[in-house]
Amino acid sequence: VCLPSYSLAQGVEVFTNLGIYGGQINDIAIHPSNPDKMFAGSYLGDGLLKTTNGGSKWRAVETNGVEPGQDEFKNHTVYAIKMAPGNPDIIWVAHKVWGEKSTDGGQTWTHIKNKTMQRNCQNCG
């Protein structure tokens, strides 16, 4: 997986292979007032990735037991990531057939599953 990092000193974007587990990146959400904080959604692999240092290091995000014994991001495709315009600590993440919501910047997650989302969440953005 290659994700961007931005070097202010050089003023250019640099894409670096980070060696993290996953395929293509489907969506990136950047915190509106702190561009060092970003989320990236991948095709399978780790599913949802997060950086707090402008992309120098990325880590897999876990749902911390939304469903007992499962991590809802790992090995699932993340199609869309959206931050609430007035409160970027509220984050929605869409998988193929369900979603997750965080109200604390991605520390904890609430599982969202309904009949509409079960059909297809590929265009939920």
By secondary-structure content and strand pairing, the structural class works out as mainly beta
Radius of gyration: 14 Å
Any guess at the CATH architecture?
7 Propeller
Q: Count of helices?
A: 1
Shape assignment: globular
Give the end-to-end Cα distance, rounded to a whole number of Å.
22 Å
Q: Biggest sheet, in brief?
A: 4 strands, antiparallel
Residue share in β-strands: 35-45%
Oligomer: single chain
Mean pLDDT score = 77
Helix content: under 10%
* CATH fold-type name: Methylamine Dehydrogenase, Chain H
What is the CATH homologous superfamily assignment? YVTN repeat-like/Quinoprotein amine dehydrogenase
Poorly predicted runs of 5 or more residues:
none
Number of strands: 10
Widest sheet, order of strands: 3-4-5-6
Q: How do the SSEs run, as a string of H and E? A: EEEEEEEEEEH
Number of domains: 1
User: What is the CATH class designation?
Assistant: Mainly Beta
